[in-house]
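Q: What structure does this chain adopt?
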Amino acid sequence: MSARNHSSYSYELVLELNSLFAKRSAQTSAVTIAIIVIGTIGNIFVLAAYWKLFKRKSKQLKGRYFMPHLAAADLIACAVGSFVFLYFDFHRLIFTSDVGCRLSTFAAWSTNSVSVLMLLVISVNRYLKICRPHHQQMTLYWKRAALIIITVVSIISCAPFLYFSGVRQGRTNTTEFADVIDLPPHLHNKVLPYHQCATAKDNTIWWKIYYSALFVVQFGNMVAMIVLYVPMGKIIYEKYRQNKLSRTISRTAGLSDDRGTNTANNESNDESGVHSTDIVESSEVTSRNVTDLTQVRKHRGRQHKAWNNAKNRFTIMFLVVVIVYAITNLPTFVFLYTYFENDRFRRYFISDSNFEVFNLVLSLPRIHLINNIVNPFIYGYFDLTFRKEVKAICASIIVKPKQICCSRCS
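A:
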C-alpha cells in the first residue's frame, strides 16, 4: 500500500473512530441541547418582560436595571458555550482549525465571565440599597460604567486563552478506548493520528499560573457574594423581628385606634424602603382606617404573613444564588485543574474509565452552563412584577392564535 493510500485509509479510520465517540457522547450532547433550549426560552422571557416595562416607562423598572442585562449576558453565554461544546462533541478527533479552536475557547470563557461578574455587581448594588440606604448609591452613570468595566475585564482576563488554547496533534492507539466505546475488529490495536481542540495546548508553567489565578478569582468572587448577602439577610431578619415584637405589644395592649394601625403601616413602609426592590412588593399593604379590633388583627395577620414570606423568599434566594453559583462553577475549575496537573488522573478518566465515567468527564466542564439557565428563574421567581409580566406574555401567546383562527373562520 502506497503512503498516500495508507494516509487516506488512516483518515477514514479516524473519521469512523470520531463517529463512535460522537455516538457514545449522545447523552451529554442531548443535555447540552436541552441547556440551549431552556436557557434561550428563559432568558428571552426575561428580556420580553422588561422590554414591555420599558415601553410603558413603568416605575417598576427602578431597581431592576441589571436584570435585563444579566438575562442578555446569560443568553449569549448559554448559546455560545453550548454550541462550542456541541461542536467539540462531533469533532473530538478531527478538529483541524487552530484559529477556530482558540476563538471558540475564548468566546466560551469570556461570555461566561461577563455573567459571573454581573452577579457580583448586582450583589454590590443590593448591598448598598439594603445595608447603606442613606449613603451614596449606584447612579445610572455608574451602572452603565459597571457594564463597560465588566465587559472590558472579561475580555482582558480571558484573552490569554487565545494563546494557551489550540489544536493538539498526536497519535493514539485505539486499544486505549476499548472500555469506553465498542471497537469493531478492524479498529483494534490501530495507531491513528488525531487533531483535538484543547483548552491548554501545552501544559506549561505559565498556563498553571494563569489557571491558578483564575481559580483564585472565581473562589474570591463567590466569597465576596457571601460577604455581601449575609448582612443583608441579617438586616431583613432584624426588621422582621422588630415588627413581630411591635405586633405582640400592640395585641397585648388591645390597641384598636387609628393611630395604632397607622403606626404598624408606617413601620411596614419604612422597612420595605430599606429592602431591595425584589422583596418590596411582597410586604406592601394598602393603608386604611381600621377601628374594629377584629379587622386590626386580620390586617396585622396579613402583614405578618407578608413579612414572613418576604423573609423566607430572600433567605431562599440567598441560598440558591450561592449554592447554584458554587455547584456550577467550582467543580469545573477543580476538575480541569486536577485534569491538567495529574497525569494518572487524566489517564484513568480518558483511557481506563468505563462508559458512565466517560460521560461524566464530558459533563463536568460544561456544568457552569446551568448557572446561565437558572438565573432567570432565581431572580424572576423573587420578582413579582416579572412574574406578572410573564403571565401576561404567555396569555397573549395563547390568545392571539385563537383570535386569528376565529377571525378566519368567521
